[in-house]
Amino acid sequence: xxxxxxxxxxTDGHTKEICQKIRSVVQQHGHEVQLISIDDxxxxxxxxxxxxxxxxxxxxxxxxxxxxxxxxxxEKILENKPSAxxxxxxxxxxxxxDQPDNxxxxxxxxxxxxxxxxxxxxxxxxxxxxxxxxxxxxxxxLIMYITNGPTNPKTVADFTNWxxxxxxxxxxxxx
Length: 175
Fold this sequence. Notes:
Elements: E1 3-9, H1 14-28, E2 32-37, E3 51-59, E4 62-63, H2 65-73, H3 75-79, E5 83-89, H4 104-112, E6 119-124, E7 126-128, H5 134-146, E8 156-158, H6 162-174
Parallel strand pairs: 1-2, 1-3, 3-5, 5-6
Antiparallel strand pairs: 3-4, 7-8
């Protein structure tokens, strides 16, 4: 049995939901899992975990700066333990942008950090216009209009392939 840390950065809560699913799968394989927000990671002893998973959402084309700061502070630990990274973004709803090698946000992230995780994944996110503040709703609707996505302000569209999430959980269990 391994101890696994799943650290996440989320804007609207969907990345946390994905992490909870991964945690469930990893626990089913007999591992102990702790799920922690990037906002609370300074209080965590990374050395006490056998594996580290980082999940981060995209908002307005960028991962949260705290994810980059975390990687910079903990590069040696991340490099010396089995580790994984996944990105959650709505552009991954498109088949030509749903894999680590063809997703622009994943590629850019991996180019910007020295850490090379053992495993990487990309998951499509969720649009829930009614949850967003006014400015965010307008901006995201404009982005969706430009990229042929849903623009109805009452839309709730979960583009996540949950089977792919479960498969990633199994990969984490076996790494």
